[in-house]
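Per reviewer request, we include the raw input and output of the structure prediction for the construct analysed in the revised manuscript.
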Amino acid sequence: MLADMSIKEFLDKTASSDPAPGGGSIAALCGAAACALSSMVAALTVNNKEYVGVSEEMEKLIQAGSGLMTFFMEQMDADANAFNDVIAAYRMPKTGEQERAARSAAIQQGLKKAAEVPMGVAERALEAMDMIETAVEKGNKHAVTDGAVAAMMARNAVLAALYNVEINLASIKDEGYCEKMRDRIGELRDKAVAREKQILDKVVL
């Protein structure tokens, strides 16, 4: 798994001439980082005598953050694999009519998968903002800026993932599918920006 690499190994691989991992994997990494930071805020709140009233809520936040972090780390590989499948489809033989038809179908199927993986990342990153907001509002105030950075990283995860959806839609021929996906893109993008502002407005230093 990409997530099992050291930070340097992952960055070196990303910086190489290999096209994957790329922006989609980085978007998922941003989501994982957002969840890690919100979990840290919660961990610094649990069992703190100043925050006894929210200790149970913070425990639940830590569990939710752990589950989401695992999801995002898995999507780092899922995005790279989806891209590699598209490349493999483009490399299929196309000498005869049947081969061309099979190749075209494989490409279109691969492109949809390559769009749906980052769409899932964007949707879950937006969901994570609810958890992050709780960390900022009720968590240890000494770590409130970590919660703020978590909100920024979640926003980044949404916007970055959506760009990866869009670039795949550009080559998908199913107009109905593309229209639905573009409507969802606009909705998620607007919500992510608005939610980030809502959370950051609650940061008191």
